């Protein structure tokens, strides 16, 4: 099959109107209790059942509640209400969960007409149980109304006022309630010191230096970020999860520098360096990279590591003009199910190691990788035990007579 025809076919299969609930990937027990709580509004009266059951079913679909669980809702409403409603309050134990629940409750109540008074009483009772302040109640009622009217300007105004009053709410939830809202935060020289915790969870643009030091924490999640500068972590903590990070320009040869940090996890990230810099340099500790793409690097390797252990799973490095992975000193390397495309360096286009620790590379694919002298795909500085390569594939890697250099054990498919 022609590859472009295949992409067109897959594109046509995607349901672009599908809504994924913020809690779609929670466990089924949580989702059942959550949906039971919302069901109080839908099943409460004959009028509400007539008006709301269709929309309630959409919530069950969006949250991906299995039919085997959904089938028990009516029975438990009728026979086990007192017991099950306590489970609802038990699982809604954080503000984010209560806020999301409130959003669903209000979205469902938008469809009530004859049952409007009953719906208002249900919402007010939940607000009281959650101990919402007047500001919280006002925000959700008004933000829901702005979303219903598709008034994004009003939605943004309400959000900024809510934040100014000292409250926090995730961008994911804002988008779930009002899908057309677009908010971009702008930061200049973001400096985090002892004890500070800073969360970036909406589209953002960063100008200048980001410094995370002395126990501070930077969390970047569920958003797109454009950066003109670099990120330095020294004795702090950084978490990057479900992020698209695009480099517009870089003030260093590497975008993310990490030192004096015991453990770093980077998951579900696309880092596009636009040939301005390398990707990540960690000098100490452990680095785990899952489902990450690092693209278009230059001046420095995509990943440079001199810590204790580097673990890579399901990760892609592509168009890395100053090398893919570089492991030095005593770093242990574990690579599984990764792709390396057009990575080049003098020795070991995709992976270079002069570490004294063990290395294990499995189930990975190397395409168009070049080591200008030795090791088109993989180069080990020392020939020693503990350097193992199993079930890896190589396509158009050069030099052909030295695709892998100094492996102790190698098994090709």
UniProtKB/TrEMBL annotation:
Signal peptide: none annotated. Residues 256-384 form the Right handed beta helix domain. It comes from the Bacteria. Pfam families: Beta_helix. This is Right handed beta helix region.
């Amino acid at each position: 099959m022609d590859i472009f025809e295949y992409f067109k076919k897959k594109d046509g299969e995607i349901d672009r109107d599908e809504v994924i609930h913020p809690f779609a990937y929670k466990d089924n027990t949580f989702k059942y209790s959550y949906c039971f709580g919302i069901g109080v509004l839908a099943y409460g009266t004959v009028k509400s059942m007539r008006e709301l059951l269709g929309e309630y079913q959409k919530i069950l679909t969006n949250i991906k509640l299995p039919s085997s669980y959904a089938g028990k809702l009516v029975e438990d409403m009728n026979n086990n209400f007192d017991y099950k409603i306590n489970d609802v309050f038990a699982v809604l134990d954080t503000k984010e969960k209560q806020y999301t629940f409130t959003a669903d409750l209000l979205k469902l109540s938008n469809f009530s007409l004859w049952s409007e008074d009953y719906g208002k009483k249900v919402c007010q009772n939940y607000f009281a149980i959650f101990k919402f302040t007047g500001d919280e109640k006002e925000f959700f009622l008004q933000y829901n109304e702005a979303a219903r009217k598709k008034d994004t300007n009003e939605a943004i105004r309400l959000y900024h006022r809510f934040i100014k009053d000292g409250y926090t709410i995730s961008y994911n939830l804002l988008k779930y309630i009002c899908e057309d809202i677009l908010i971009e935060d702008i930061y200049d020289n973001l400096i985090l010191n002892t004890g500070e915790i800073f969360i970036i969870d909406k589209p953002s643009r960063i100008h200048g230096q980001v410094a995370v030091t002395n126990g501070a924490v930077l969390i970047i999640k569920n958003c797109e970020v454009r950066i003109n500068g670099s990120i330095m972590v020294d004795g702090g903590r950084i978490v990057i999860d479900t992020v698209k990070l695009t480099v517009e320009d870089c003030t260093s040869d590497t975008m993310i520098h990490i030192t004096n940090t015991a453990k770093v996890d980077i998951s579900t990230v696309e880092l596009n360096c636009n040939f301005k810099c390398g990707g990540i340099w960690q000098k100490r500790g452990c680095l785990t990279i899952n489902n990450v793409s690092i693209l278009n690097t230059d001046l420095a390797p995509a990943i440079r590591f001199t810590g204790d252990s580097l673990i890579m799973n399901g990760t892609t490095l592509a168009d890395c003009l100053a090398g893919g992975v570089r492991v030095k000193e005593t770093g242990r390397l574990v690579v599984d199910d990764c792709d390396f495309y057009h990575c080049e360096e003098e020795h070991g286009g995709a992976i270079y190691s002069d570490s004294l620790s063990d290395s294990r590379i499995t189930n990975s694919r190397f395409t168009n990788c070049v080591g200008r002298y030795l090791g088109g795909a993989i180069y080990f500085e020392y020939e020693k035990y503990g350097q193992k390569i199993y079930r890896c594939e190589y396509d158009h890697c050069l030099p052909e007579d030295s695709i892998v250099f100094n492996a102790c054990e190698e098994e090709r498919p």
